[in-house]
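Comment on the following before class.
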Amino acid sequence: MVIQSIPTLIVTRPEPGGAAFAARLGQPAILSPLMAPEFLAPPLPPARALILTSATAVEGLRRLGEPLPPLAFCVGDATAQAAQALGLQTESAAGDAEALLGLLLARRPEGPLLHVCGTKTRGNLAARLGAAGLPCTKCVIYDQRPRPLVPEAVAALHGPGPVILPVFSPRSAALLAAELARVGATAPLWVAAISEAAAAPLRGRAARLVIAPQPEARAMAAEVARFFAAP
């Protein structure tokens, strides 16, 4: 009789998103964020509306404690919920940077707009909005510093059983690929990626690889749940 190993879940998403994602799954998880935010304190340019592409940017605004425009256009629902906690009126694109760009081009809000973000961004939103006649400034409010895998994660990656690895961005996937090489991971890797770009650094290393049908936490959770349901 063959006894199948129970998969180990390692969540490498930065906090607080990593713990929230693990809680959504309801499965035991090793939390090993591969990035940690370092918050900056830049002056905020004047704006009539904000563009927010991460909940970490919302936390940066909270730490600044400055008066904010009343309206925020958000990349997804989790970011919108965080912005609402700051008292902002929000509209969510419920997707990725391209979906957010489409929402803004359709709404064409009165400017100037302000994209509050980290040092690493995708989509070049401010420049593309400006080219489309929507004046927008980018304001970097945090950096994400790389972190190594925690010892519990390294041990699991050397175990006999499969390891489930959700990846939420191309940068985190690239950092994860580098860490897997550094620690010499030998366990079978089951990867759930939020996008094709996030999957790319791990192709060739994963025993199984799926891409979520929508770039959101709910779809990612469903893909991870399928790994647990049908090992």
Remarks:
- The mean pLDDT is 92.
